[in-house]
TrEMBL record:
Record-annotated Exportin-1/Importin-beta-like domain positions: 47-192
Gene Ontology, cellular component aspect: nucleus
Protein name: Exportin-1/Importin-beta-like domain-containing protein
Tagged with keyword Transcription: no
Taxonomic classification: Eukaryota, Metazoa, Chordata, Craniata, Vertebrata
Length: 203
């Protein structure tokens, strides 16, 4: 049942985020592969379980970046864009957006030592180049469903909290202003715009 699956996903996240030192280095890749396959499996299943699995993979990425898993975000984007199994494209797209949205949020609350926080923030900043084109494409695609566009705007809100320079997200901010015309997207578009221009680097 979803409640037990949620408990299992939460236990994985707790183990990775709080007891990272207990996980042998030779198990990192297996854990990564398993989390990818479980996220694909739950892409069309229970949303609460999917989110916890995404948070667990985000925590794994943060602990492995940048040395043990360089290009983590680029790999996430590539993995979910590949044609895969029985998971339909829209469910895969929404799972990827969920993963990309929780990644910066997990960074903000992570227990990484201060020196590691700086390293990981720098690595995440460099990965914006893998996230930006994807969000831009999904937001500007005429046939993108409102749900996908709303998730894109949430994802943008999440990433700009990492002080993404305004000139590196300009196209998405313009698309967010365009989204204001859609009543279904209005609130998330406002939040994305406000978060973007509230960052100190944007002043």
């Amino acid at each position: 049942v979803p409640e037990i699956q949620y408990f299992g996903a939460s236990a994985l996240h707790t183990k990775i985020s709080r007891y990272w030192g207990d996980i042998p280095a030779e198990q990192y890749d297996t854990l990564k592969t398993q989390l990818f396959s479980q996220i694909a499996r739950f892409a069309s299943g229970s949303k609460i379980v999917l989110t916890r699995l995404c948070v667990a993979l985000a925590s794994l990425a943060l602990n492995m970046m940048p040395e043990a898993w360089p290009g983590a975000v680029s790999e996430m984007v590539r993995m979910f864009q590949e044609e895969g199994g029985e998971v339909d494209g829209r469910a895969r797209c929404l799972a990827l957006l969920e993963l990309l949205t929780v990644l910066p949020e997990e960074f903000q609350t992570s227990r990484l030592p201060q020196y590691r926080k700086g390293q990981v923030r720098g690595a995440l900043g460099r990965e914006w180049t893998a996230v930006y084109p994807l969000l831009q494409q999904l937001l500007r695609q005429p046939d993108s469903p409102p749900l996908v566009k709303a998730r894109v705007l949430k994802c943008l809100s999440s990433w700009v909290l990492l002080d993404v320079p305004l000139n590196e997200s300009e196209g998405l901010v313009e698309a967010s202003f365009t989204a204001l015309a859609d009543p279904e997207l209005f609130d998330t578009a406002v939040e994305a715009i406000v978060n973007t221009i509230s960052q100190p680097d944007s002043q």
